[in-house]
């Protein structure tokens, strides 16, 4: 069973929700229309990916980044998407930064806790030797010699 | 697959397989209504991107923007198709409304012949 790119559809439930929210109340959508829109969305992603990849290659990069996708939108004549996409990107970056800081904070707390336990164990078996002059041996008596 | 998540603020559904930490807190301080983060699962979008043989790697931000762009695209094409349905005084969007929109709008030219 060959897996064509067109088979990689996006979830129907989400597509339906997006369509319903875009349209006024009371408007319905037939199954065929909905599945056609879903397929169109997949084709859109594939086309945008291909365009974005061209920009990445022009920049001699192997990884697609956000600006490649934004350039692709302009190339595809979807300039009106660029502004809302930039806003969404900013919100996404803030969220990622927040998550990163939260996880770094957690890691720091865990490391501190671990270090505290290790230090108290290392001083246990060590016992200081007695200083010179206070030997426990008694001095030999000289009265034993005849 | 029961992807019936009714939460409007949750960006990702059960598919937390993209390698990122799942976002348990839906608290979004943004006041702008359209600034919600993507509803489409990033893992599926990533799968589509990887289907292109010329693509080596794609950053997380690129995947996210593509998902968001796909949402905007769905909204746009649905509205354009609805205009055609309205002209026919119908309240249900049909496949032919979509075909008309694709023919009428230049930006949708790339879709011609791909939906059959």
From TrEMBL, chain A:
An example of a Gene Ontology BP annotation on this entry?
DNA damage response
Any Pfam family from its record, for instance, is CBFD_NFYB_HMF
List the GO cellular component terms: CHRAC; epsilon DNA polymerase complex
Q: Subcellular location, in the record's words?
A: Nucleus
Tagged with keyword Phosphoprotein: yes
Which keywords does this Swiss-Prot/TrEMBL entry list? Acetylation, Coiled coil, DNA-binding, Nucleus, Phosphoprotein
- The Transcription factor CBF/NF-Y/archaeal histone domain is annotated at 9-73
- Return the Basic and acidic residues bias intervals: 94-111
Which stretches of sequence are listed as region Disordered? 94-146
Q: Which GO terms describe its molecular function?
A: chromatin DNA binding; protein heterodimerization activity
Q: What does this protein do?
A: Accessory component of the DNA polymerase epsilon complex. Participates in DNA repair and in chromosomal DNA replication. Forms a complex with CHRAC1 and binds naked DNA, which is then incorporated into chromatin, aided by the nucleosome-remodeling activity of ISWI/SNF2H and ACF1. Does not enhance nucleosome sliding activity of the ACF-5 ISWI chromatin remodeling complex.
**What is the protein's quaternary organization?**
Component of the DNA polymerase epsilon complex consisting of four subunits: the catalytic subunit POLE and the accessory subunits POLE2, POLE3 and POLE4. Interaction with POLE4 is a prerequisite for further binding with POLE and POLE2. Heterodimer with CHRAC1; binds to DNA. Component of the CHRAC ISWI chromatin remodeling complex at least composed of SMARCA5/SNF2H, BAZ1A/ACF1, CHRAC1 and POLE3; the complex preferentially binds DNA through the CHRAC1-POLE3 heterodimer and possesses ATP-dependent nucleosome-remodeling activity.
- What this protein is called in its record is DNA polymerase epsilon subunit 3
Q: Which organism is it from?
A: Myotis myotis
From TrEMBL, chain B:
Q: Per the record, where are the segments of Low complexity compositional bias?
A: 18-35
GO MF annotations in UniProt:
DNA binding; protein heterodimerization activity
Per the record, the domain of life is Eukaryota
Q: Which residues form the Transcription factor CBF/NF-Y/archaeal histone domain?
A: 39-102
Q: Name one Pfam family in it.
A: CBFD_NFYB_HMF
Q: Which GO terms describe its cellular component?
A: epsilon DNA polymerase complex
Question: Could you tell me which CDD domains the record lists for this protein?
Answer: HFD_POLE4-like
Keyword vocabulary terms for this entry: DNA-binding, Nucleus
Protein's cellular compartments:
Nucleus
- Matches recorded under InterPro entries: CBFA_NFYB_domain, Histone-fold, Transcr_DNA_Rep_Reg
Keyword DNA-binding tagged: yes
Gene Ontology annotations of biological process type: DNA-templated DNA replication
Q: Which SUPFAM superfamilies match?
A: Histone-fold
Q: Where is region (Disordered) located?
A: 1-36
Carries keyword Nucleus?
A: yes
Q: What do we know about how this protein assembles, alone or with others?
A: Component of the DNA polymerase epsilon complex consisting of four subunits: the catalytic subunit POLE and the accessory subunits POLE2, POLE3 and POLE4. Interaction with POLE3 is a prerequisite for further binding with POLE and POLE2.
The role this protein plays is: Accessory component of the DNA polymerase epsilon complex. Participates in DNA repair and in chromosomal DNA replication.
| Name of the protein in its database record | DNA polymerase epsilon subunit 4
Species this protein is from: Myotis myotis
Taxonomic lineage: Eukaryota, Metazoa, Chordata, Craniata, Vertebrata
């Amino acid at each position: 069973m060959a897996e064509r790119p067109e088979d990689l559809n996006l979830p129907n439930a989400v597509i339906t929700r997006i369509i319903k929210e875009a349209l006024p109340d009371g408007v319905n959508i037939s199954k065929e229309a909905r599945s056609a829109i879903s397929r169109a969305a997949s084709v859109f992603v594939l086309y945008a990916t291909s365009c974005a990849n061209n920009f990445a290659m022009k920049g001699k990069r192997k990884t697609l980044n956000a600006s490649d996708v934004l350039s692709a939108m302009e190339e595809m004549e979807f300039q009106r998407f660029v502004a809302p996409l930039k806003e969404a990107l900013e919100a996404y970056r803030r969220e990622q930064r927040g998550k990163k800081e939260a996880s770094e904070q957690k890691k720091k707390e865990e490391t501190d806790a671990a270090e505290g336990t290790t230090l108290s164990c290392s001083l246990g078996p060590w016992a200081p030797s007695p200083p010179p002059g206070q030997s426990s041996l008694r001095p030999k008596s000289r009265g034993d010699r005849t | 697959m029961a992807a019936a998540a009714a939460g409007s603020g949750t960006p990702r559904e059960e598919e937390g397989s993209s390698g990122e930490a799942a976002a348990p807190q839906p608290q979004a301080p943004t006041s702008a209504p359209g600034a919600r983060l993507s509803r489409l699962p990033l893992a599926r979008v990533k799968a589509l991107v990887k289907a292109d043989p010329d693509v080596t790697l794609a950053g997380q931000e690129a995947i996210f923007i593509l998902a968001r762009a796909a949402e905007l695209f769905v909204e746009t094409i649905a509205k354009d198709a609805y205009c055609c349905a309205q002209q026919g005084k119908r309240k249900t969007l049909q496949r032919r409304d979509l075909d008309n929109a694709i023919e009428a709008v230049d930006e949708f030219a790339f879709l011609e012949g791909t939906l059959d």
